[in-house]
Amino acid sequence: MSRTARPKANPGKARARKSAPAKPPKGRLRTVIGRWWLASLIWAGLAVGAYLVWCAYGLPDIDEAAREPRRPAMVIEAADGRVLASYGDLHGGYVGIGQISPNLVHALLATEDRGFYHHFGINPLSVARAMWVNLRAGHVRQGGSTITQQVAKNLFLSPERTINRKVQELLLSFWLEARFTKDQILALYFNRVYFGGGTYGIEAAARRFYGVSAKAVDVYQAAALVGALKAPSRYNPLSNPEASDGRARQVIANMVDAGYLSTAESRKVQRRWAVRGAAGAGYFSDWVLDAVGDRLGQTGRDLWVRTTLDPRAQRIAEEALAATLDREGARHKVREGAVVVLDRSGAVRAMVGGKGYVAGGFNRATQAQRQPGSTIKPFVYLAAFSQGLTPETQADDAPITIDGWSPRNADGRFRGIVSLETALIHSINTVPVRIYRQIGADPILAMCARFGIPQRNEGPSIVLGSGAVTLLDLTAAYAALANGGVGVWPHGLESVRDRDGRVIDKPSGGGPGRIADANAVAEVDAILARVIAEGTGRNARFGVPAAGKTGTTTDGRDAWFVGFTERYVAGVWLGNDDNSPMEKVAGGTLPARIWRDVMSDLHR
């Protein structure tokens, strides 16, 4: 029986199969791949962990950073409470969320972080949306930061834009969310955020810009304040009201979109102007700042300083000086001036130290020592009356020479025998020189010193105003004339309060008391009234009984008018800082007209 023959094996193929490696089972391959992935993940986790530890190690000391590192602030207020200026970093007192208007909370949440009460410190959707917008725009247009992240950044970190700082911001955000409630985080934000103008915190901002507490802020004010956070210098309600209004309208639209306002309610929201101070009161504010420093030194705390300044009087004085210099300055070669307005107690109601204010600049009302010219003469005649002379005493208006010096009258002529009254009305120069020769220098120097304008004994020229005075001191001296010989100290401070409203200093004002005989002063005042009615000060008339005196120095380098009514005392000076002469400017021309413009507006 035959069997089917089996094919013989191919020895070459057999050898080939033997030499090929065996394929691992599929399960084993998955195990190898899984181990590699696990190892990679472990190393990646270690790397991320190490990076997070490194970022956390670089975090600032939280307790130290949470303190308020800043310069103490000083807020200068006008007599009516309007803010004139602020120095240092102004912070309001800490206010809890219950002391903050709901309008502010709604405006902030609608604009900055609508999901604030629902996220855990970061909002992934907001971050993704911001990244998409920025990628499409090719530059940073949206931030995507939550309020918690902003608190972390503002409270602890620098504003630099780096990956490390962003990671630190996230870590601090998680820490804040774990440690504080949502309301506490919101309060932290409101109390530490910057609103512009050196103002930090919602309480300070509400009072600085609108004169109300954070609890009393209405819808429009809330929208403007929250709107300013985007760019405080650009959207500041005081420095840029139009831009602030446009931004506030956008915030109001956000509140409608978020459901905090209805469309009908949004249409009824009326614009609220920020409380504006006297824009040009910088010279006065700087002067008050120095006065507070002299009285209290470095207190290390915030101060609110209520002053005597009247914003209306300040505006009138600024406009009168600026209008005259703009209109007449080039033609008469006069570039600068100063105006001071006091009440009869010596309180400064207006102070203009120059045509334009420069921070920390030279104050021509308080710092410029200038020759007073004939404005010194009332005190010369007052000294003469105290020595027994009278307004009716006769004197010779004729050429006179003392020690080689020969004074001349402004009009170049001599009138002969005149009374002392006539000599003062028409500002004759030879007569006071004769008074000097008759009574001597001592009574004249003593009288000037008692009125707060001490002069050096430079010979007979002192009776024509060759010495030096400041406009403020000279105006205060005329206030003593207005008071019948009772002196005053020019002052600008009413009270100084701390952050909690406690009065820590209240200057008494006042003055040195009686400094001249009342009858002699009354005689001088009556003559000064005739100076305005019929003498060199005729340009100062404005329909209200007034008294005053002109003053012009050699070559027209200084021109003055100082005078008073029943209500106010005002002084005006014109000249140039380099002492160059003016062209056809005397005390009875431009200064008298500025004085008239100021006084007539004040007495309306």
Structure description:
It is elongated and about 135 Å long. The strands form 5 sheets. It has a 5-stranded mixed β-sheet with strand order 2-1-6-12-13, with helices on one face. A hairpin with a 5-residue loop joins strand 1 (74-77) and strand 2. The chain is an alpha+beta fold and 604 residues long. It has helices spanning 11-19, 26-57, 62-65, 102-112, 124-137, 147-156, 163-179, 182-192, 202-210, 219-228, 241-258, 263-267, 282-296, 311-332, 377-386, 420-425, 430-439, 441-450, 471-482, 518-534, 590-602; strands at 74-77, 83-87, 90-91, 194-196, 199-200, 303-307, 336-343, 348-352, 394-397, 416-419, 486-487, 493-497, 503-505, 513-514, 547-552, 558-564, 568-575. The longest helix is centred in the N-terminal third of the chain and has 32 residues, at 26-57. Among the domains are: 100-267, Orthogonal Bundle (Penicillin binding protein transpeptidase fold); 315-372 and 468-602, DD-peptidase/beta-lactamase superfamily (Beta-lactamase), CATH 3.40.710.
Brief descriptors of the model:
604 residues; alpha+beta; Penicillin binding protein transpeptidase fold; Beta-lactamase; five-stranded mixed sheet; five-stranded antiparallel sheet; 21 helices; 17 strands; elongated; disordered N terminus
Short description:
This protein has 604 residues and is α+β, with helices and mostly antiparallel strands. The protein has 21 helices and 17 strands.
State the name of the first-level CATH class of the domain at 315-372 and 468-602. Alpha Beta
Q: Give the spatial strand order of the biggest sheet.
A: 2-1-6-12-13
Helix/strand-derived category reads: alpha+beta
Shape: elongated
Largest sheet: 5 strands, mixed
- What average pLDDT do the residues reach? 84
Helix content: 40-55%
Taken as a percent bin, the fraction of beta residues is: 5-15%
Helix tally?
A: 21
CATH architecture of the domain at 315-372 and 468-602: 3-Layer(aba) Sandwich
- Look up the CATH topology of the domain at 315-372 and 468-602: Beta-lactamase
Terminal CA distance: 150 Å
Radius of gyration: 39 Å
Poorly predicted parts: 1-9, 11-20, 48-68
